[in-house]
Amino acid sequence: MTIERDAGDMPVFPSDEWVGWLDAALSECRVDDSVGLVLEYHASDDDAPVFCWHVRIASGRVSAAVGRAGEAHGLPVVTLASDRDTARAIAIEGESAQRAFAEGRLRFDGDPRLLLAARPAMEAIGAVLAGAA
Questions:
Q1: Residues 35-71: pLDDT tens digits?
Q2: What is the DSSP pairing of strand 48-58 with strand 106-109?
Q3: Are the beta carbons of 38 and 109 closer than 8 angstroms?
Q4: Higher pLDDT, 19 or 130
Q5: What is the residue extent of each domain of the chain?
Q6: Phi, psi dihedral angles at 4 (to 5 degrees)
Q7: Largest CA distance in the chain
Q8: Which fold is adopted by the domain 7-132?
Q9: Is 115 left (phi over 0), alpha (psi -120 to 50) or beta?
C-alpha cells in the first residue's frame, strides 16, 4: 500500500530529516522475508562533507537510518557512492542507478550478486518511493 505524500513535505536532500522522511516512507514497504541486505550510500561533493545513510532490508521490512551501517546489522553490506546531484537524481527523481553506474557517476563496492538476488525487494522499494515523492 502506498500513501500519497505532498512533495512539498519532503525535507531538504540530503539531510537527517530527509532520512527520517525516507524511513517513514519505507515503513510501508513489505518484501520477501528471505532478503537480508544493507545498502549504504555516501553522497559527497568537493566543497561539502560526505553524507551517509543506509537502508536495511530484513525480516520482510525496510528501514533507513543516518550514518554508516557498520557491522551492527549482521547483514551483507553493499556500498554506493556518488556526488550529491547523482544521489538526488537516483533517490528523488527516479533516475536509474544502473545508468548512473554505467556512466561512471555511481561507484559500487560489494557483491553485485546480492543486488541481483534482492531485485524484487529493490523494485518494491522503488514503487513505494515513487508514490512518496
A1: 999 999 999 988 889 999 999 999 999 999 999 997 7
A2: unpaired
A3: no
A4: 19
A5: 7-132
A6: -70, 135
A7: 41
A8: Nonspecific Lipid-transfer Protein; Chain A (3.30.1050)
A9: alpha
